[in-house]
Write a structure and sequence with these properties.
Blueprint lengths: L2 H40 L1 E9 L1 E24 L20 H6 L5 E4 L6 E2 L4 E5 L1 H109 L5 H110 L3 E3 L4 E6 L11 E19 H4 L7 E6 L2 E13 L12 E8 L11 E18 L4 E3 L2 E8 L2 E6 L1 E5 L3 E6 L6 E9 H6 L5
Antiparallel strand pairs: 1-18, 2-8, 2-12, 3-5, 4-7, 5-6, 7-8, 8-11, 9-10, 9-12, 10-11, 12-17, 13-14, 14-15, 16-17
Length: about 550
């Protein structure tokens, strides 16, 4: 190998060593950055913002924006002049034409005293009704009341009379059912009594037979003894001769007595057998009679039962008819009373609406609409005229479905107008509309109308305002920023400073309005507390902060 070749090999080896050294230095530098430099650059900085516990009134509520609107007073015609009687008012003058008769059924506008844009004050006459139409309608409604009252009396009288008649029919059916029931019971008792009586006779006859059968043995013994006496007396009589007349007479007397006793004994036994036979025949006869009675008992019982059931069904039907009649009559009376109530209400509503024949303004304002003309017949209901009420000023706002459930008509609200930010007005919820203003489930809200209270002279239509619905409040209480609250180990705490260190102090919270939170225990008024904030080093450097 030449020297030149050796030199080239040494240069290549040296170059590789240099490159390896450079790579090693790069690796060490990267590792040092990762281990030592980068943690310092990305380390967070904890900052504590100092705050003071505040005291005062604390209100929790929902705030929505809206604009001022003037209240609108309207004169509306809503009378129902229909009656169940003849609506045609009979006019005393037969020469009056049909058109004029028709107008008598309705109120007629005689005079309109205002025009659109005109300012009216409370008590001003707005319009008047034709006197003849007022009297005609009053007459018709009064007649309706009178006829309805008569109808009530007639319905009540009919109810009383029909109720008495229906009650009599019902009582008669009930009595008939009772009689049928008694007859059924009597039928059963009669047949059973006859059967029992015949069974008792059979029992007596059986006892008599038993007694007769028991006496047969005694009768047979008597016959046997009498027969022996008879045979003995007969033998003595046959052996005594005629020569001894006295002995013969005695023997003959004994013989006749013994024969008579024997004959009577035999007759007595025969009578016993005859009596037994007679009793047995009577028992047979009674048994057949009992069988006949038992057979008849089923038929009589069935007939009596059917009659009883028929009468009971008749009583039940009569009861239903009685009840149905009363119910029907009661309905007629109630309908008549309802008609009377309707008639009295219509007359009362008419008198309240018409008054002295004039319609007056109940507030001061500007006429916004006149929907009728002089001479018009009020055949249909609707608005006659309207005017703005300067005293009735309202604000309409939309409240979300999450908050609407906490609101109720009559609740108080606080109002701040953009034009008068330093003043707070009071208001009250006048109405809550139950239908939502949006079908989008994420933006469902409901219109709420607020009545502005107090002096509203400085307010104009269209002014914007923030309305706060107070859902809860506390007076003379402590509160701090909600950002200061720290949850640790299921406890609510706040940072305070003790011996130069920031430590957590447990507190008890109450109401919150989303920004501040009420403190019930753990801090005192004017005490300093801290809000902990974690800030990254990169963010600190960008904002010019130093760790």
């Amino acid at each position: 190998m030449s020297i030149l070749t050796k030199l080239k090999g040494m240069k290549k080896k040296t170059k590789r060593l240099i490159l390896m050294g450079i790579a090693l230095i790069g690796i060490l530098a990267a590792a040092s950055y990762t281990v030592f430099v980068e943690p310092l650059l990305t380390a967070d900085t904890i900052v504590y913002m100092e705050k003071t516990v505040e005291s005062g009134d604390f209100t929790v509520g929902v705030t929505e924006s809206g604009t001022v609107s003037f209240g609108l007073e309207s004169v509306s015609y809503n009378l129902d002049l229909s009656t169940d009687t003849n609506d045609e008012v009979e006019d005393e003058d037969d020469d009056e034409d049909e058109d004029e008769d028709e107008t008598l059924k309705y109120l007629v506008i005689d005079t309109i005293s205002v025009a659109v844009g005109q300012t009216v004050t409370e008590g001003d006459v707005l319009l008047s009704f034709a006197e003849a139409s007022v009297e005609a309608v009053r007459k018709k409604l009064t007649a309706y009341v009178t006829e309805s009252r008569i109808a009530v009396d007639e319905a009540q009288t009919e109810y009383n009379l029909e109720a008495i008649s229906a009650k009599e029919d019902y009582d008669l059916s009930v009595a008939k059912a009772g009689t049928a029931g008694a007859a059924y019971t009597a039928t059963l008792q009669t047949i059973e009594s006859e059967i029992a009586e015949k069974k008792a006779k059979i029992t007596n006859l059986q006892v008599e037979i038993q007694n007769l059968e028991a006496s047969i043995e005694d009768a047979e013994e008597e016959i046997e003894e009498a027969e022996e006496d008879y045979e003995e007396a007969k033998g003595v009589y046959d052996t005594v001769g005629a020569e001894n007349q006295h002995v013969r007479l005695t023997a003959e007397s004994s013989y006749k007595s013994a024969k008579e006793a024997y004959t009577k004994a035999k007759e007595a036994l025969e009578k016993i057998y005859e009596s037994i036979e007679k009793d047995q025949e009577e028992i047979t006869s009674l048994t057949k009679e009992i069988e006949n009675l038992q057979s008849r008992q089923g038929i009589d019982q069935l007939e009596a039962s059917q009659e009883k059931e028929s009468a009971a069904l008749g009583a039940k039907v009569a009861g239903q008819v009685y009840s149905g009649s009363l119910s029907s009559l009661e309905e007629e009376v109630e309908e008549a009373k309802e008609t009377l109530t309707d008639a009295e209400y219509k007359l009362s509503a008419f008198e309240e609406f018409v008054g002295d024949g004039n319609i007056y303004a109940i507030a001061t304002g500007v006429v916004t609409a006149v929907n009728v003309e002089e001479g018009d017949k009020l055949e249909d209901t609707g608005e006659l005229l309207s005017y703005a009420d300067n005293e009735q000023k309202t604000i309409s706002v939309d409240v979300s479905q999450e908050d609407i459930t906490a609101l109720t008509v009559g609740d108080s609200v606080e109002i701040v107008f953009t034009a008068y930010e330093e003043e707070t007005y009071s208001g009250v919820i006048a109405a809550i509309t139950m239908s939502s203003t949006s079908s989008n489930s994420t933006t469902v809200s409901y219109p709420v109308t607020i009545q502005i209270l107090g002096d509203t002279a400085k307010l104009y239509a269209g002014m914007t305002a923030d309305v706060t619905f107070v859902t809860d409040s506390a007076t003379d209480t402590l509160y701090i920023s909600r950002s200061a609250i720290v949850e640790q180990n299921e406890k609510t705490c706040v940072y305070i400073k003790k011996n130069g260190d920031y430590v957590l102090q447990q507190v008890t919270c109450g109401l919150t309005d989303g920004t501040n939170v009420q403190i019930l225990d753990g801090l005192s008024a004017g005490e300093t507390y801290y809000i902990q904030t974690r800030v990254s080093a990169s963010a600190s450097s960008k904002e010019g902060l130093t760790p």
